[in-house]
Amino acid sequence: MNIVVCVKHVPDAQAERTFNASDNTTDRENVDGLLSELDEYAVEAALKLVEEADGEVTVVTVGPDNAADAIKKALQMGAHKGVHVNDEAIHGSDAIATSLVLAEAIKKLDSVDLVITGMASTDGTMGVVPTMLAERLGLPAVTYASELTVAGGKATIHRDGDTSTQTVEASLPALVSVTDQINEPRYPSFKGIMAAKKKPVQQWGLADLGIDAAQVGLEAAWSKVDAFAARPPRSKGEIVTDEGDGGTKLAEFLASRKFI
């Protein structure tokens, strides 16, 4: 079984994240980044499947030079090879363009049986990309899987809702997005870290995928950030000493903010 996992390099949530002043896009160059946490569950799900049967896991990412770190982490976990689509023209792409680039990269790979993604990215939280990608690939999409099994040419998932759990099946090839309930991602072992250094990673640009640069990037995006500003520091709260009128002051405070 050949499985493709789409992964993303995102700014570290613990770092000081900001935007580029020149075009209001997310600054991905001057901030620490890492493999999106939700994508780790997708990598782990793929690894578990190929450990049960013969096959390979290929990780695909789209982004600038430092996005290679996302592939590196997935290879250290146990993925077999990687594909990095890196082209300056992609900068500022929205979900529509991102799904296009991912789709063309996957089409360039041979005999893909299953595509696995995280439920969303931890920076843009665009959970729509997996479904867009499945549409472009002409594959059935079974999303938000909390459990995943593959047998008899079918992918079967459990999707947990507020009041029920659904069981959904799709014939292979298919696309599956997984939630953070599906597994516990492994930590790379020393052996895995050393082995990752020898695993192949292909570098592709838009020309390799046959994509016109006018179809991607900030100019082609359907949505843009008009302006941004740093979050103002929290102001100190007011301390009220209760001298018999504490309840009245509390009610006045709530009423002034239209809570009551």
Give a short overview.
This protein has 260 residues and is α/β, with parallel strands linked by helices. It has helices at 37-52, 68-77, 95-107, 129-137, 190-196, 206-209, 246-256, and strands at 2-6, 9-11, 33-35, 56-62, 81-85, 114-118, 141-145, 147-151, 154-160, 165-171, 174-178, 201-204. 27% of the residues lie in helices and 23% in strands.
Q: Assembly type of the shown chains?
A: single chain
Order of helices and strands: EEEHEHEHEHEEEEEHEHH
Under the CATH scheme, which class?
Alpha Beta
Q: What is the count of β-strands?
A: 12
Provide the helix percentage.
Answer: 25-40%
**Proportion of strand residues:** 15-25%
Classification by helices and strands: alpha/beta
Distance between the termini: 60 Å
What is the fold-level CATH name, i.e. the topology?
Rossmann fold
Shape: globular
CATH-assigned homologous superfamily: HUPs
**CATH architecture group name:** 3-Layer(aba) Sandwich
Overall pLDDT level: 93
Q: Ranges with pLDDT <50 over ≥5 residues?
A: none
* Total domain count: 1
For the largest sheet, list the strands in their spatial order.
Answer: 7-11-6-1-4-5-12
**Major sheet:** 7 strands, parallel
Description:
The protein has 260 residues and is an alpha/beta fold. The chain contains 7 helices and 12 strands. The chain has one domain (2-220): HUPs (Rossmann fold, 3-Layer(aba) Sandwich), CATH 3.40.50. The strands form 3 sheets. A 7-stranded parallel β-sheet has the order 7-11-6-1-4-5-12, with helices on both faces. Strands 8-9-10 form a 3-stranded antiparallel β-sheet, with no helix packed on it. α3 crosses α4.
